[in-house]
Amino acid sequence: MKITYELLCAHGAADCPDARLFREIWPDGAEPTVEVLDRAAAEGLDWLWCVKLLPLEGIGGQRDFSVRCVDPVAHLLTDERSVRALDLAGRRVADPSSVSDRELDAAEDAAWAAADAAWDAAWDAAWDAARAAAWDAARAAAWAAAWDAAARDAAWDAAGADQRSILSAMLMVAR
Q: How large a percentage of the chain has pLDDT more than 90?
């Protein structure tokens, strides 16, 4: 499968500036290789538009892509609702008839509630730590080290590279 501007438009990217820029870089389209997706990312393109080229369900689908992207960090999930949602999504990928839409939606809603609760708790803890750090030079240094932009950017870039590799492999199979 060649990724072309027309194919991106057919899957909902018509008004996306990234799709037009994709056409400028690859006027005749491009194979969905890791190198192409890496270059798209380097050019500032939202390469995740290409996920829309995958079917929604089943092996090699959009849900499968999501599960594969979460798997490397699944051990970090501490809330049982999130673990259950990931398990159900994985089962749905393997056998779409094994998990109902209603069951999956309920698990997804519960996982979002867990994520919201975790975010609120983390935000509250961060504000408490920030206030304390304002009065304590040593804590301020620790806070700065914990939020080191270079380390955060490197981790973000590595995660994006892994996701582009997963997507490339799935698009190559989807031909």
A: 0
Assessment of whether the complete model's pTM goes beyond 0.70: no
Which residues, 6 or more positions from 85, have their beta carbon under 8 angstroms from its beta carbon?
107, 108, 110, 111
- What is the C-alpha to C-alpha distance for residues 150 and 32, in angstroms, rounded to an integer? 29
Distance of alpha carbon 60 from alpha carbon 48, whole angstroms: 15
Q: What are phi and psi of 30, to 5 degrees?
A: -150, 145
Q: How far is CA 30 from CA 7, 84, 99, 156, 171, in A?
A: 11, 38, 36, 25, 12
Identity of residue 90:
G
Residues 45 and 20: their CA atoms lie apart, in Å, by: 10
Query: What per-residue confidence (pLDDT) applies to 131?
Result: 47
Give dist(CA 151, CA 76) in Å, integer: 18
Summarised one tens digit per residue, pLDDT across range 154-174 is 777 778 888 888 888 888 876
